[in-house]
Amino acid sequence: MKKNILLVASALLSTIINIQAQTTKQKLEQNFATFTKSPSLANGIASLHVINSETGETVFEKNASIGLPTASTLKVITSITALDILGKDFTYKTSLSYAGEIDSLGILHGDIIIHGEGDPTLGSHRYESTKEDVILNKWKKAILDAGIKYVEGRIIADDRLYQAWICRADGYGPIWEIITAQEFLR
Questions:
Q1: Which of 45, 62, 79 is the last residue of a domain?
Q2: Does residue 126 share a domain with residue 181?
Q3: I want to staple 92 with a disulfide (CB 3.0 to 4.6 A). Which of 66, 108, 119, 164 is the partner?
Q4: Phi, psi of 115 (to 5 degrees)
């Protein structure tokens, strides 16, 4: 009798485990199918390979052997690494300073210096507070508040922290690619 109860309990447990595994797989299949039917993927392809982290077994795979570029998924790894290393309260700081003298007419005989820490959102259109015109207007106000009406010198982007940074012409890169003295003082 005990043997029969154990056998029934074992079979029931096995069935429950199989149902749960099937449910997970079915959910993945359904969600992947929904994702691939999205109009934004009409001319694209997606692949997914889900592995059980405890057993190493494949839970779901679709187009798993097709080599695709990482696209935005690499941002997840970068973001997690930044969060781990920098912490959740980290913020980049970009500051302005000047070198030289400001005369009685408000002319800076010297340079405006932008000190950056590599803020990836600086000049980004994605956030209201980081849009190009918002940043440039803040800097313009700071310069005017310092009593500077005209710069007889240079605007220097201090990039010593990132000597290997390469500015590209495709729109990606630091905001100082587009900054000129006239943009500050319009």
A1: 62
A2: yes
A3: 119
A4: -100, 110
In the chain, the percentage of residues whose pLDDT exceeds 90 is 31
pLDDT at 141: 96
Residue with tokens 């079979």: 11
Find all residues with CB under 8 Å of 12, minimum gap 6, and list them.
none
| Phi, psi of 58, deg, nearest 5 | -75, 125
Best CA proximity match to 178, nearest among 48, 168, 106, 150: 168
Q: What is the pLDDT of residue 66?
A: 87
At 7 the pLDDT is 40
CATH number at residue 126: 3.50.80.20
Residues 35 and 96 in one domain: no
Contact present, 94 and 115 (Cβ < 8 Å): yes
- How confident is the model over 115-172, as pLDDT tens digits? 988 888 888 888 898 898 999 999 999 999 999 999 999 999 887 776 544 454 554 4
Residue type, 92: Y
C-alpha span between 9 and 136 (Å, rounded)? 70
Cα–Cα dist 99/110, whole Å:
5
